[in-house]
Design a protein that fits this description.
Involved in protein trafficking. May serve as a receptor for ARFRP1. By secondary structure, this protein is mainly α. Helices cover about 70% and strands about 0% of the residues.
Length: about 160
């Protein structure tokens, strides 16, 4: 009898659906965080805040608040990794995949790769935060003690 605990079966449908789910989590929560930032500074919402690398900068208040929204988004995405992926070994893979697709989206939106150093710094910091916190949460769950016997012992 072979054990089927955490059996690793190649399931491309599961992997693709998890990638799509993490992209949805990434953009929906980023939109919510940016809407909160826009409410603070009374700015109009725009796709530039998500995809334009020129918005993220240290020189303007909107740029700093947008960077804060990206960092807060990495924390909520780490919770998404913990809740939906549940595997510490896969957190880095899904984090890099989410940010890679975001870079492709920015590339398409701007018609060239992002050139601002602040965009790269923010995305690398967000990638590190999302991966480390997601992996920490998943590892805590994976390493939780498994109760073997919950029935009371009898005196023999």
């Amino acid at each position: 009898m072979a054990s089927h605990f955490r059996s690793y079966i190649w399931d491309p449908v599961l992997i693709i659906s998890q990638i799509v789910l993490m992209q949805c989590i990434y953009y929906s929560f980023l939109g919510l965080w940016l809407a909160g930032v826009d409410g603070l500074v009374q700015m109009n919402r725009s796709l530039d805040q998500i995809f334009s690398y020129e918005v993220l900068g240290f020189s303007t208040t909107l740029g700093c608040l947008s960077m804060m929204a990206f960092i807060l988004n990495s924390l909520t995405c780490a919770l998404g990794l913990w809740f939906f992926i549940r595997r510490g070994k896969q957190c880095l893979d899904f984090t890099v995949t989410v940010h890679f697709f975001h870079m492709i989206g920015c590339w398409i939106y701007n018609a060239h790769l992002p050139a601002a150093l602040s965009w790269w710094l923010v995305n690398v910091a967000c990638m590190a935060l999302m991966a480390v916190i997601g992996e920490y949460l998943c590892m805590r769950t994976e390493l939780r003690a498994i109760p073997v016997n919950t029935a009371p012992k009898s005196n023999l």
